[in-house]
Amino acid sequence: MLTIIGKIRYPEQTFGRIIIKGNKVVELDDSHELPENSDVLELGEKVLIPALTDCHVHFFQTGLYLGALNLGDMRIKAELIQKLRSTDPTKNLIGEILWGYDYDPIDSMPTADELTDIFGDIPVVIRRADGHSCSLSHAAMKLLPGRLRNENGIYLGKSNELVIEHLFTLLDEETLKDAAKKVSDFAVKAGALFVHALVPNIRWAKVLMAIEDSLPIKLTIFVETTDVASVAELGLKQIGGCILLDGSFGSRTAALSKPYADAPENRGILYFLDDRLYQFFMDARAKGLRVAMHAIGDAAIEQYLRVAEKVSGGAPLHGWRIEHAELAHGELLERIARLSLTLSVQPAFEARWGGPNGMYAKRLGDRWRQTNQFRRARELGINLIGGSDSYITPIDPVGGIVAALAHPNDEQKLEFSEAMEMFSDAPARWEGRKPPLRKGSEALGIILDSDFGETEKPKVMGVVRGERVEWVY
User: Fold this and answer.
1) pLDDT tens digits, residue range 114-134?
2) Do 47 and 165 lie in a common domain?
């Protein structure tokens, strides 16, 4: 038996004592009485909260990129080239390829000639921070089928998606298993003991399903394919994740109803025709699969809604999801509410790109005020669940809560109870499980070094698993 005394915080209230027996919570109250024969942990200034969920993780990619070249501090191509020239190419190989990720340029991507001049015959891939553009060296392009090769090595939109998909097929099973272990350990240290794991194909899904019981986190697996029959055969209850209806604001491939502020001739790209999307939705619904799809721009969100309304006749589609939904506003949010859709959102995007001086404002102009309208969605009764989109931003549900509290648009900020619910109770409802660390439920929690403030992020210090406490820092 384990008794924990101190501040035990939930979205809706706070307690002072929790008693755990085996793997279950047996008491939750404000008493300071200590049961006989119980181990005792006094929190002091620390705070215990339920284990959190990250509802959008590119699972294997996150693990792979933990061993890749992090370019997150690079904004200008000249600085990137200088950094690459000082890089030891043998230290960041995934398979035979040197991968660099999280490059967030204010000018342009490097060309194949520039990368080849630095690295010669070593295959090199540089990915933009949003994951929707990439650059390949000539050696890397030789790994592609001829139809995907081009002259300058820069890919965006659908071609970016096809290139990355092909390069991932070159990875062997042991590399994938190692990546799964790395990302799982990272998630534990971030307090995400539940993860919605997005995988790009059936082969990778089978690898993950074979090892998931050995991992220290609990997974809900999404396969990013329209192959409904194969996903149903795996016994999964959901399909999709980041099946792309459009691209991203950063790469100017998110589909907009009005042109980009900094590219007036461009409204982005829709990746699906309505007829194809309708057939996919119909097939998935017939198999009882809940559909999750990536839609960032308002034109892509409208396409999802237009086709979903046709499929259901306007009836609710409980558990169906729109991932990101960054420019859902006005009538779009009202239609989302009528269909009882879930929005899988990333508050960290606002911390990284939001506000009047951020990338959203550069791409969208005054429409930056329409991005990630969490408050309005809550007012309409829409189920919001929180994630990171890792590797785009790190797995960090504690940071996600803080980002929702500190939304740069004051009208869309959430209260603490609402922000925490996005990463705790709301995902549990979507999965159909009881939230952890409640009386009678599974004893899974995380220990923070301090309580939440409006802008300061507490640090995860430990994990409670039943009667065991694992200190991670």
Assistant:
1) 999 999 999 999 999 999 999
2) no
Looking at the fold, whether 255 and 388 belong to one and the same domain comes out as: yes
Q: 33-62, pLDDT tens digit by residue?
A: 999 999 999 999 999 999 999 999 999 999
| Residue range(s) defining the domain that contains residue 11 | 2-51+450-471
64 and 47 in one domain? no
Shared domain for 373 and 456, answered yes or no, is no
Quick one: 267 and 407 in the same domain? yes
402 and 327 in one domain? yes
Specify whether 46 is located in the same domain as 64.
Answer: no
Q: What digits encode the pLDDT tens for the residues 282-300?
A: 999 999 999 999 999 999 9
- Give the integer Cα–Cα distance in Å for 22 and 42: 19
Report which residue type is found at 137: S
Same domain, 415 and 280: yes
Does this model's pTM top 0.90? My answer is yes
Domain count, the chain: 3
Query: What separation in angstroms does the CA of 458 have from each of 217, 397, 400, 424?
Result: 21, 11, 11, 16
Token duo for residue 226: 């329209």
